[in-house]
Write a structure and sequence with these properties.
Layout: H1 12-74, H2 83-93, E1 101-109, E2 112-118, E3 129-130, E4 141-142, E5 145-153, E6 158-160, E7 165-166, H3 167-171, H4 176-185, E8 197-200, E9 221-225, E10 234-236, E11 243-249, H5 257-262, E12 270-280, E13 287-303, E14 307-308, E15 322-328, E16 330-332, E17 348-353
Helix pairs in contact: 1-2
């Protein structure tokens, strides 16, 4: 029988040498792979941290710009001292470690503020973001910044409560110096008078010197506007360019379901009210020409259809229909109401991010 035999065999010495060479090659491969793995770790950990820091800085810049613009709007357009403290507080409040830098706060245009934020090392106070794994490549920090701009001013339109008030009546609640300032500059300093305003729809309607009777409303209506917007609102798009809206006849509160559900929210919270300068027609054909927005805090009301607050306006009994309140200043963050810096400001402002 023929036997199979190996033609050659490795000696023990040859085997040991071969294994040593293999181990040396493996060490080189592992070393190369470790560099690659650390590179990926730097990419995942450090770059991910940079993106997270950028998002926090952007939130801080947005919040700071909106807060400063709101403070300026509430002060009648004159920015109060301490805006730097406001910016720093908002920037830090949006940082996970509670520490961000505010590079600058500037006012690049009238009624516009720009805030720039930067990363800050909470441990050392340096205005950089410390990196971890990227240090093996000689990169130990990253300079990360974000910026935002916000504007404030009277709204040029949007969706508002479907009721309008005469500009003439509103002006009765400004001082003579405020009226003169409004006529000259389109704005006024301070707040409107906090004296109660009462708008009635009956024979007891208060008379305001220089204003048309019946609060300026046309016969057959109480200033209600057609509900053309979402919910219980009217849509106004062209304030400042002879904007006109159609009135709703009668003195009943609008009967839409959205309006009925809104009743409990009407009291003691400022709402934006469009002001009209002139009106034509009557009843369903009434048309109001709007010239701006004011802020009214409603304190009591008694309307048709059984809609009334408890208590109702003072001395409003029987067939009396009335809305009582006070004019005030109000700043809204409603994104659906664009800022129009060139329009007269009657105390109602909106603040929005512009960049």
């Amino acid at each position: 029988m023929r036997r199979l035999t190996a033609s050659s065999q490795l000696s023990r010495t040859d085997k040991l040498g071969f294994e040593k060479n293999e181990r040396g090659a493996s060490t080189v491969i592992v070393a190369v792979l470790m560099v690659v793995l650390l590179g990926f770790a730097a990419l995942v950990v450090d770059v991910g941290g940079m993106y997270a820091e950028k998002a926090q800085l952007q939130s801080g810049a947005d919040s700071a710009a909106l807060a400063i613009a709101g403070d300026c709007a509430r002060a009648g357009g004159i920015c109060p001292p301490g805006v730097a403290d406001t910016g720093t507080a908002m920037a830090n409040g949006n940082a996970n470690d509670g520490s961000s830098g505010v590079t600058s706060i500037t006012f690049p245009a009238p009624r516009t503020v720009r805030v720039e934020t930067n990363a800050r090392n909470a441990a050392t106070g340096a205005n950089v973001l410390p990196l971890r794994f990227a240090q093996i490549f000689g990169i130990s920090t990253s300079d990360i910044r974000a910026s935002a701009e916000a504007a404030w001013g009277p709204p040029s339109g949007g969706s508002s409560f479907p009721w309008t008030v005469s500009e003439c009546v509103f002006r009765q609640f400004l001082s003579s110096s405020q009226r003169a300032e409004l006529d000259a500059t389109g704005n006024f300093t301070g707040d409107p008078s906090s004296a109660p305003v009462l708008l009635r729809y009956d024979e007891g309607t208060p008379e305001y010197p220089g204003c048309r009777t019946q609060n300026g409303y046309m016969p057959g209506g109480f200033g209600w506007l057609e509900t053309t917007g979402p919910g219980c609102t009217t849509t106004i798009t062209t304030i400042g360019t002879a904007a006109t809206v159609n009135g709703q006849p009668g003195n009943n509160y609008p009967n839409a379901d959205a309006c009925r559900s809104m009743v409990p929210t009407l009291l003691n919270e400022p709402i934006l009210i469009p002001l009209f300068r002139s009106a034509t027609g009557n009843g369903r054909n009434a048309t109001y020409t709007l010239i701006g927005f004011a802020a009214l805090e409603i304190t009591a009301f008694k309307l048709g259809g059984g809609v009334a607050s408890n208590p109702a306006p003072a001395d409003c009994e029987g067939n009396c229909r009335a809305i009582a309140g006070r004019f005030t200043r109000f700043v809204s963050l409603d994104d659906g109401m664009p800022v129009a810096p060139g329009l007269p400001n009657y105390g109602a402002s909106v603040v929005s991010l512009t960049r």
